[in-house]
Specification:
Blueprint: E1 13-14, H1 17-27, E2 34-38, H2 46-49, E3 56-60, H3 64-73, E4 81-82, E5 98-102, H4 108-117, E6 124-130, H5 131-138, H6 148-156, E7 157-165, E8 170-171, E9 178-185, H7 195-207, H8 213-216, H9 240-246
Parallel strand pairs: 2-3, 2-5, 3-4, 5-6
Antiparallel strand pairs: 1-8, 6-9, 7-9
């Protein structure tokens, strides 16, 4: 039984067993009882994951052809594949579960936002991304790729860049280098007025990242608050904790009219 590769779904399947084993080894560094694989595709990781002892495993796969192929090739997967987009999926388990995957590059940032929605249930993520996205997630203040994704993820997770994966490790080879990163949920989240206010502030600041914070976020604060010297900085100069602290100084009600994310 064969399957086809669909560019429309951003399918680049990992074929190098060395990297498959590295990802599984990284996954096993911390204990977990429930595991969700996002986009199993041709089963490169799946064949290792279903062999992990004592683990309740589920996979989320949108492509009907791949679901059929996986269930045919690995019969133990029957009843354990959620046939829909990860972006539309409800939490696959009750309680805590770890997330792993060679994430489709065309929705990889959206997958991270999904993880943030599930953060109370997801203590750890091991994921493969386009290297540019992976670097953005782990970047620190002062770095030109430090942005919305960096701040929002790092507010809730400690992040670590694990290793590069070259194009030739995939079929078909992507035109870019890939990178595997680890997210481990923070024990203490920076104090903020609300997650919604934090999200609105970070988006506003980075959507006009060349401007000072005073000009980029003027609509969110009263004039006297904007006199604080921190507003003379640009968004990329602020720590995650700085953004969190500023939420307490935002106007009582702010309207989230920022519909695009420009990084």
């Amino acid at each position: 039984m064969q399957y086809t590769l669909k560019k429309s779904l951003g399918q680049h399947f990992l074929k190098d067993e060395q990297f498959c084993r590295q990802i599984v080894a990284a996954l096993q560094e911390h204990p977990f009882a429930q595991l969700v694989e996002v986009g199993p595709g041709g089963g490169a990781l799946t064949k290792y994951l279903i062999e992990l002892p004592g683990i309740d495993f589920k996979a989320v796969e949108l492509d009907t052809e791949k679901v059929t192929w996986l269930e045919h090739t690995y019969p133990s997967l029957k009843g354990r594949i959620i046939h829909e987009s990860i972006l539309d999926t409800r939490p696959p388990f009750e309680g805590a579960f770890t997330v792993v995957g060679n994430f489709p590059y065309n929705i990889s940032s959206q997958i991270l936002f999904k993880v943030l929605d599930w953060k109370e249930q997801v203590p750890e993520v091991i994921g493969m991304f386009q290297k540019e996205v992976a670097q953005r997630v782990v970047s620190q203040p002062g770095n030109k790729v430090y942005g919305i994704l960096s701040v929002l993820v790092q507010a809730y997770y400690n992040v670590e860049y694990l290793f590069d994966v070259p194009p030739e490790a995939f079929n078909p080879p992507p035109k870019v280098m890939s990178g595997v990163i680890r997210l481990v949920r923070r024990n203490e989240v920076p104090a903020m007025r609300s997650g919604r206010d934090f999200f609105i502030l970070v988006k506003a600041a980075f959507n006009q990242r060349r401007k000072t914070l005073r000009n980029a976020t003027r609509s969110l604060f009263l004039p006297d608050v904007l006199q604080d010297p921190i507003f003379e900085k640009r968004a990329e100069q602020l720590q995650v904790s700085d953004f969190a602290a500023l939420t307490f100084k935002m106007q009582g009600k702010v309207k989230d009219d920022i519909t695009t994310i420009n990084e």
